[in-house]
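TA notes. Do not distribute before section.
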Amino acid sequence: MPLTNTACKSAKPGPKARRLFDERGLYLEISPAGGKWWRFKYRFEGREKRLSLGVYPEVPLAEAREKRDVARKLIAQGIDPAAVRKAEKSESVEQTNTFEAVAREWHAKFSPSWVVSHSGRILRRLEKDVFPWIGSRPIREIMAPELLETLRRIEARGALETAHRALQNCGQVFRYAVATGRADRDPSGDLRGALPPPNKKHHASLTDPKDIAALLRSLDSYSGHHVTRCALKLAPLVFVRPGELRHAEWSEIDFEAAEWRIPSLKMKAREKHIVPLSRQAVAVLREIQPLTGAGRYVFPSARSKARPMSENAVTAALRRMGYTSDEMTGHGFRSLACSALNEAGWHKDAIERQMAHAERNSVRAAYNFAEHLPERRRMMQAWADFLDELKAGGKVIPLHREQAG
């Protein structure tokens, strides 16, 4: 006797699994825990088989019968419905295991610990230069020659550094795929030496004292937006990376200790960093505090105080002042300070720590964010005094280490 909706709904579990049979191989299996599953029993090539058709009541009786009838038609054509189900499942898994799907999963998993701008650059790089070519390919099937062909397209437009960065990101995706069981190996390792080395990036900066003095005076007299002018004035005094400068938050500034404490997530080396603030740096921050101190960012965007200033704001201001990209960049303040302090004989480790260059020894790095801090304080004040005298055009105070105590 065929099943009814009432019988399916009212069926109770027993101490063992129960089966309520419908017609033509369809039955409802009820577990001791109360779960109800539709099953279809059939024979194919002399063997008895079972096919799951879903869970009741999500799959009602009428729909279960339709699924049974579809399976019976396949059997009549000499096709095993279980084999069709397996192939469909395999195709579905294959679609979730494409390079793009795995790459987006990798990015979503790890990007929360990255600086927002860095995270965005990686995803845009993959979307522009990698996904259009291998994004739809099953990641397990991608071999070194196919990956190299993708990177050659980037190389062909002269973007060698981008090609190398894309290779690095692809390697990270492949290694994630290996770790999660969706690829057998990372083919990016086979491409070592296959791309020409990128041109070493040089951050333009001024070197002649007269030119530096003229630049400092130009920064003070910049007639653009006041927030940008203060950022320009602070940049040479702290010589952090441009991204670190524009993301500065008031909560990180300790006026009493005269320190700017940058959290690790904002730093390129992923280590928290202390910037000792000279008297001159404190003065710049005090100057802008009445304007932006009530908000989050020290240097907010002109359009929205909820966002930091544009990543191009400092560089654009330098261009408006007449400095070309071959003369000075936002990053050039770091190069200028690093060269001058090294030439003046300041402790190399103190300079490196203040520049926040990556520490190769990760155990040591966890403890040395405050290393050489007393000397770094003296160095930052001596540097600020040196810039003041240079800007004034008077007798320049020597920057030598021994002069700073």
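Switch to the second chain here.
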Amino acid sequence: MSSPPNITTIRRINAHSLFQQYAEERISAGEPPKGLEAAWASHIGVSGATWSMAKSGARPIGHKLAKQIESHCGVEQGWLDIERAPQGLSGPEQQFLALALKVYRATNSGGRKDLRRMLTEFRKD
């Protein structure tokens, strides 16, 4: 039985969800994807390096940073601390899954086993 995610993980996932919303809105408005990470970092009032480390989990999102993100994003205080259901797949995730499904369906059982093995080995790296 797996344990529930800790507050650090919940905050990271929720912050990433806010970033995804921000990025989708910007791209829909015609902005190029390049530079969105830096623009997001500026939007929430941190350096690009701080956002990069928070996003990857190398730097936990503490209470002060969580309040700052919530304030800059217009969500209520404590929003980042609440575990939420996944919001659906992003465009790149949908494209990847469509490609994986196409490859999976186009091959025989040996190819499917190879595909599973490659993905499993990649996940270990």
